[in-house]
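This section describes the prediction task in plain terms. A model, or a person checking by hand, is given the sequence of a single protein chain and must write out its three-dimensional structure as a string of tokens. No templates, partner chains or ligands are provided. The sample shown here is typical of the held-out split.
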Amino acid sequence: MNLEQLDERCERLYQRALSAQWDSSSAIAWDTPLRLQEVRLRAPLVTGAMARDWPDLPPDLRADLVRSCLGTLLTNLVYGETFVDQATAELAERLPSPALRGMVATQSIDEARHASVLLRYLHEKLGLLTLPTRHVASSRLPEGTQLARESWQTTTLMVLCLEVAAMAAIQGLRTYCDEPLLHQLLRRIVSDESRHISSLTLALRNPAMSLSDAERCRLQDIAILGWLQGLAVTERPVLTVARTLADETEEIDDSEWIYFRKLIASTLIPKLELIGIYDETLAARLEGDGCPIVPRRSASTMDHDYSA
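The expected answer:
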């Protein structure tokens, strides 16, 4: 892909982003009643005795459990969206071409909207205040001052890894919770996030981005950090909730949690290949950190990947 092709793809994504903007006050049916007593939490979040006994639990207890679980998981997602909003706003000033800057600027707007929508759901529908930052895995993300010291490539790759993790977290929420209003707003967010992943991958495929060996090694380090952070904002909080819900005599089998690892790896590894930093060394490092290895695709197949 040459620079002209890159700009053309950026322009198409930018126009898609402009046409896909939505008003959170009118696009979401906020007057939908929330019947937490009727919501059912599913595996892998609820297993064993809790899954078996769920229909027989007192309605108020079911509602309290759903409120607590969603409060924890959505708060974690809010902090991730807020971080990405900050990072993309900063990136919009540093990317090397106007096409890339315009494309990423729309992402910052989207991320701010996502955080606002999730917070409104937490406050107005669940009746919860946001949990303290220190209680969520994403609080360990770097602050803006640290981002400013990184190259635009490393910041972009970290944001890409977090967007892939966000997609996995949302897919998980849609799988193990059947609350209708939550599904409605998550569908909106997923549509945006899919476009963001494509945009960030395109930015990192910039033909003008010639990497030294040191820069390539740094990006591989960021890929490892992004993988681990992805697990921190998906697998870890859900495992924590699952253990809270489980019977005291019941052990949660960690092997079942390949769920999120497969979701993240199936998207992240092909993107690392497209960027050109996925090699045997990075594959071995990722595998050592628990990443399922996805079969590599041919260069011709990757180049025709419309999403990137």
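For orientation: The chain has a mean pLDDT of 83.
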